[in-house]
Automatic annotation (TrEMBL):
Residues 364-413 are annotated as: Disordered. Residues 364-373 have a biased composition (Polar residues). Coiled coil: none annotated. Pfam families: Phage_base_V (PF04717). Residues 294-361 form the Gp5/Type VI secretion system Vgr protein OB-fold domain. Gene3D superfamilies: Baseplate protein-like domains. Residues 384-396 have a biased composition (Gly residues). This is Gp5/Type VI secretion system Vgr protein OB-fold domain-containing protein. Residues 400-413 have a biased composition (Basic and acidic residues).
Amino acid sequence: MKKETALTYKDIIVMPYNIRVNQIEITQQMNEHATLHLTGVIPDELEDSYVYMTDAETAIEVLQIGSGGQTIPIFNGLALDVQVKSVLGTYYLEVKAVSHTYVLDVKKKNQTYQNASMPYSELIDACIADQKGADFMDYATKGASIGRFTMQYIETDWEFLKRMASRFHTGLVPDTVHPAAKFYFGVPFQAGGTQKMEAINYRVKKAIGNFLVSSKNHLDGITDSDYMYYEVESFQPFKIGNEVTFQSKKLYVYKIYSTLKDGLFKHIYTLTPQNGFSVHTTYNQAIIGASIQGKVIDVAGDKIRIHVDFDEGQEKDTAYWFPYSTIYASEDNTGWYFMPELSDNVRIYFPGNREDEGIAISSVSKAPPQSGSMLAATNPPSPSGGGSAGASGGGSRPAPPEDSRQDPARMAD
């Protein structure tokens, strides 16, 4: 096998700057935005001009110059921090950048997905639709539908999609070479054509704590050997999910730390068995005790469909049926009970961290309020103590108090 030739600073250029690179650090890991930290010397006449020219939309590219003069992308992302410092008359540029997926992790949003038959691929498309150029490749869902009421609530798109990926015990992997927010939903395991990893140095460790957490959170079929990690220093280029052989074992690239230091570009790879990528299902703790406002668009029995206020639209036929916490007219929870009418305002209350366990409560009539005397005149006492909205012999759910927290729609904006 041909040994990989190490890159040097002469083989690397950084756009859009005229810079002689001294040091580069690139970190890549599942569920995290890739990061870049670089320093280098710039011409004296440029001084602090690079600070002024760099803004929130400036793309930072790190390119390798190939043997034929062609450029090969190593990193493409957005500048987060840039500074110039002068040391004994020499000007140094320092840049911190992040993968383009960062734009998915800035604004908190609210959105419901009520159609249980919606494929996850459609949910992801809808979630990232307002980010120009954003795209993904699905390595996890195999066409599965969401199967339940699903809600993005005070979460960034990145936070929400990580939570969706955790339903498949996997995560998100940012693309680091394209000039847009592209990512893999699930790990892009690349089997076949396995390369042997040539190590400069290595060490091995076992993450027993991670195994204990995973084994107690419904991850079946895992063993502590799945949480063996090899940290291998090498000049060879690999990507997250690439299959390699090391120490006669088939392993996968879990994390990459690349560095240009002392003139040489090398990588420290964290390798693990495929099961070592598994994550347990996560939930949105922010919804515990929260409630959201909406209007009734359909009623059947003791269930209702609603159009949530912060959603732009909602088709009635694909809306989720929420159980309604009925208010009975008699103390023993029998007899007449009151259901909301179409266009009535209701709240969906979430007692726990699972959005599909929400219940509809507190119907509010559209009619103007009446005084006590008017109510007595228009609603005389019934001999049986009953109401007039419907009949049932079942039980009822106690309605929780009004949620005193800030309106989530305002919190997200």
